[in-house]
Write a structure and sequence with these properties.
heterodimer; A: three-stranded antiparallel beta sheet; 12% helix; globular; B: alpha/beta; Peroxisomal Thiolase, Chain A, domain 1; 2 domains; two-stranded antiparallel sheet; 18% strand
């Protein structure tokens, strides 16, 4: 893919910047021009805390082109503390230790490398909350 | 609005057709449907297809197939709605005839998936979900469905092996379908031991990558008997959409579009789930079969798996599903699947389903695009003698 396609979503991917709808007050992630809740177009940017819990997950063994060298890896739906669900990989934990309800936090990591001379794509992943690991 | 009937069907065997191209398969199905309908000319061709551009570098399928099937300079266009593309083409054909704009319409669903390697096909199939915010994190299309299956297991307290009856039933029904890709039964033990592709989805939860084409000919119901002894009337036709990404839905385990399209189709036909004798549903993954049964009112929320465990989805059950093998065993040539479902229901309604024949007056087909963002429901009925 070309560079601008990644640039466009930079704030969302690096800092989990979404929106709060000024009309209905609901949090929105990923950001979009028309509120999915009230269909109005008056939002302000909002950086999400990055804290949430695993809502569901799957460990991928047969991966799409571009991701085969990383398999097996775990993809999850994470329910952010503010409400929205996010699709992202889970990292810093063995695949078999991921559980629904596990507290996680957002980190910025390498998503993939597009070949020898291609782009290295970074974005959000989620890891278990560190305090919980110590306990 | 006019009543619309199906007067011709055609299909190729589903499988890995190394010696046949996309256009060869489509022309085979179109020729068979025209021959079955005893019709030589149609006013329009609608082609259901999802992946031809990505996997075979061929778009512009409307003109290509009208040309290669010898249909003349007719209106012809490709329709895309991910895995529901074929059903979307049927819907467009229905609208064309019902509106009075067209009299005779051909609908063809075709997909050629084996011209690319497995990873490329897997990546292309992921285009059914949100490219920027889902697929860009590496889930295969199977993994997106696995997120639903894992959550289903968690919320409703079922185990992975509880989904086995869906795959076992599909394979059992595929045995007697000469056009099915898989014609051998599988056991619940084989299901339990199957290799994971996106945990908890295994190879035996998932429909195969394959090639195939199916076609139907539509015309106004009041002219159907001029061409065929047993026409099948489209009693209900409805399409609905939901948020594209799984993460954008307030309750991912409720297939809202499937529910809405089923309700609209029931309403149009003046029937309910208890009137349906056969259901061709979108069992691309076993969890989707459970969620469709629930969305269409055949089972309560969280009870779709139990319906299967109780044997109610078999040919002898209360609501037979995947009567000719479904997506799991007949195969899931993505953009063709929605047309295969209609062809198989017509076989049931004509009494031409062979060893899998059930007593069928009213049949329903539901095709689902992506992880549930598009749903198209058709209700078909054997046209009574006048």
């Amino acid at each position: 893919m070309n560079l601008p396609r990644y640039w466009r979503t930079e704030k969302a991917r690096y800092a989990l910047v979404g929106e709060i709808c000024r009309t209905c007050g609901k949090p929105i992630f990923p950001p979009r021009d028309v509120c999915p809740h009230c269909a109005q177009t008056w939002q302000e940017p909002h950086a999400f805390s990055g804290k949430g819990r695993v809502y569901s997950y799957s460990t991928v063994y047969e991966a799409p082109a571009g991701y085969t060298e990383y398999r097996p890896y775990t993809v999850a739906l994470v329910k952010l503390d503010e409400g929205p669900l996010v699709t992202a990989q889970v990292t810093d934990v063995d695949n078999q230790d991921v559980r629904i309800g596990m507290p996680v936090e957002m980190v910025t990591r390498k998503i993939k490398e597009e070949g020898e001379n291609g782009l290295i794509v970074y974005g959000y992943k989620f890891r278990p909350v560190l305090e919980d690991v110590k306990r | 609005m006019r009543d619309v009937s199906i007067i011709g069907i055609g299909q190729t065997k589903v499988g890995e057709h190394w010696h046949r191209s996309l256009r060869d398969l489509a022309v085979d199905a179109i020729s068979a449907a025209l021959k079955d309908a005893k019709v030589e000319r149609v006013g329009a061709l609608y082609v259901g297809n999802m992946l031809s551009g990505e996997l075979t570098a061929q778009e512009h399928l409307g003109a290509l197939l009208a040309d290669w099937a010898g249909l003349g300079s007719i209106e012809a266009v490709k329709v895309e709605a991910a895995c529901a593309s074929g059903a979307a083409a049927v819907r467009l054909g229905y609208i064309g005839v019902a509106s009075g704009i067209q009299d005779f319409v051909l609908v063809c669903g075709v997909e050629k998936m084996t011209d690319a390697d497995a990873e490329t096909t897997t990546a292309a199939w992921s285009a059914a979900v949100d490219a920027d915010y889902e697929a860009s994190h590496g889930p295969s299309f199977a993994a997106i469905n696995a997120l639903l299956m894992r959550r289903y297991m968690y919320e409703f307290g079922v185990q992975r092996q509880d989904f086995a009856p869906f795959a076992v039933n599909a394979h059992q029904n595929g045995v007697n379908n000469p056009c099915a890709m898989f014609r051998s039964p599988i056991s619940a033990e084989a299901f339990e031991k199957a290799r994971m592709i996106a945990d908890p989805i295994s190879l035996l939860d998932a429909a195969p990558i394959c090639d195939g084409a199916a076609a139907v000919v539509l015309c106004p119901s009041d002219r159907a008997r001029e061409f065929v002894g047993k026409p099948v009337r489209i009693r209900g036709s409805a399409m609905a959409t939901d948020r594209l990404a799984l993460h954008s839905r307030s309750d991912p385990l409720c297939l809202h579009a499937a529910h809405v399209s089923a309700q609209k189709a029931y309403q149009q036909a003046g029937v309910g789930p208890h009137d349906i004798n056969a259901l061709e549903l979108h069992d691309a993954f076993t969890v989707m079969a459970a969620l469709s049964l629930e969305a269409c009112g055949f089972a309560e929320r969280g009870k779709g798996v139990r319906l299967a465990q109780e044997g109610e989805i078999t040919l002898q059950g209360r609501i037979p599903i995947s009567t000719m093998g479904g997506l799991k065993a007949r195969g899931h040539p993505v953009g063709a699947t929605g047309v295969y479902q209609i062809v198989e229901l017509v076989e049931q309604l004509r009494g031409e389903a062979g060893a899998n024949q059930i007593d069928c007056r009213l049949g329903m087909a539901q095709s689902i695009g992506g992880s549930g963002a598009t749903a198209i429901t058709h209700i078909l009925e054997a046209q009574e003698e006048r």
